[in-house]
Amino acid sequence: MGDEDAAVRKVVDILGGQRFGFLTTTAPDGTLISRPMAMQDVEFDGDLWFFAERDSRKTIHIAANPRVNLACGSAAEWVSVSGIASVVDDVALKRELWNGAVEAWFPGGPDDPGVILLRVEADGAEYWDTPGGRAATLVNLVRSRLTGRRSAGGENATVTM
């Protein structure tokens, strides 16, 4: 497996361990707006899926400028995914992806015409991975402070999807 394949696999692994991410859209005045969104449990193949309200600000933003970013992470790993978002109004797909957590936000169910899916087609990503988690990060920071050398910080790569 090449370096690029390994980097893509790392992005997939990090995303697979996440349930929520911050989806950033651009408002018509150019303001960037991020909001937490629940990622749907779908094997990542370059697309990320979210449920949303048809008339929400995020769907209005996406209609005007489909470039988006999704950022998520944990104590030891983070990923930022850029891509193009689109509104998908497919009742069969909504039913397939529907789950109890979604129902808490959208009690009308998957047949509700006000509920749509957002699809983000990833075109790039950047990740940071700190093996050993918080403890390793703390040790690296203390070592850096004591030696005056830059912290190793872990692994970082930019990926074309």
Describe, in plain words, how this protein is organized in 3D.
The chain is of the alpha+beta class. The chain has one domain (3-160): Electron Transport, Fmn-binding Protein, Chain A (Pnp Oxidase, Chain A), CATH 2.30.110.10. The chain has five helices and seven strands, in the order αβββαββααβαβ. Strands 1, 2, 3, 4, 5, 6 and 7 form a seven-stranded antiparallel β-sheet that branches. A hairpin with a 3-residue loop joins β4 (67-73) and β5 (77-88). It is globular, with a radius of gyration of 18 Å. The two termini are 16 Å apart. The model is unreliable at 134-144 (pLDDT under 50).
Q: Total helix count?
A: 5
**CATH superfamily assignment?**
Electron Transport, Fmn-binding Protein, Chain A
Largest sheet: 7 strands, antiparallel
- Uncertain parts: 134-144
Q: Pairing-aware structural class of the strands and helices?
A: alpha+beta
Overall domain count:
1
CATH architecture: Roll
Task: Using the coordinates shown, work out and report the CATH topology.
Answer: Pnp Oxidase, Chain A
How far the N terminus sits from the C terminus, by CA atoms, comes to 16 Å
The averaged pLDDT comes out at: 87
Per DSSP, what share of the residues sits in E-state strands of 2 or more residues? Answer: 35-45%
Overall CATH class: Mainly Beta
Number of strands: 7
State Rg: 18 Å
Question: What would a concise description of this structure say?
Answer:
The chain has 161 residues and is of the alpha+beta class.
Provide the fold topology.
Layout: H1 3-16, E1 20-26, E2 32-38, E3 47-53, H2 57-64, E4 67-73, E5 77-88, H3 91-97, H4 100-105, E6 115-129, H5 133-147, E7 155-160
Antiparallel strand pairs: 1-2, 1-4, 3-6, 4-5, 5-6, 6-7
